[in-house]
Amino acid sequence: MRYCLLAALLVFALMTSAVGEEKTSSAEKGAVVGIPEFSADYELRRNNTRAARLTRTLECEDGECRFSSEGRTVGFADLLLRGRISEYTRFRFDGEAIEPRDYSYRQRARGDNNEYVRLFFHPRTGRVSSRGDEDWQATVDGEAMDELLSQLRLLLAVRAGETEMEFTVVEGGGDLDAYRFEVVGEERIETDAGTYDTVKVKRVRGSAKRITEMWFAPELEYIPLVVRHERVDRESYTATLVELKEEPRVYMPGE
Length: 255
Hints:
By secondary structure, the chain is mostly beta strands. The chain has helices at 4-9, 26-29, 75-81, 147-159, and strands spanning 35-46, 49-61, 64-73, 84-93, 98-108, 115-122, 127-131, 135-139, 164-170, 176-191, 194-204, 210-217, 223-231, 235-251.
């Protein structure tokens, strides 16, 4: 089980999530126009207390792309846990479609909170296999991708003007789950990295006690500005952009 503080880094879990099939897909609308390369730092706060730092980087070359995420605890949380998360997904982008290759997730933390997931995707056959803490193999109908890549797909769907999205998620243990999101409005958000107009997206759940909201910045090619997850009457986690290490730029193969 991922330690909640570290997993919240992926509450971009919110976005969280591994196999993606949108209700009205960007691909169907021909709207996946380029991939936004970028590198950015986020600060995670738990109940308004600084808890972790997250760096996300997306880079492409000759149609081969790598989206990575590096997270670590800071402050008091670091004294208790000394937690680290290293995650990446690799995929091919031909200018129109995304084809997943492989995915790696590694978590290290005190108190036996270690975890390792390694997934391999074979889009032509629908086969997905794992060689991490658990070895398994499955065949998935429809488009299949890992948790991190599905977060990119959500970004691209919002960027394409979608208002309702649904993803079927393949989790590290091989289980499938469904994630639904909807655009709920626009807001102007102020952060240490600047003030931006944003598109607000909410995850649709069956329970009102868990709330996940995201704010995407069109001026920054729709990379997330803020991601917030709350368990009502218990705790909240908020990841906020604090620094752009590399300004977003649109990548197209051959350009």
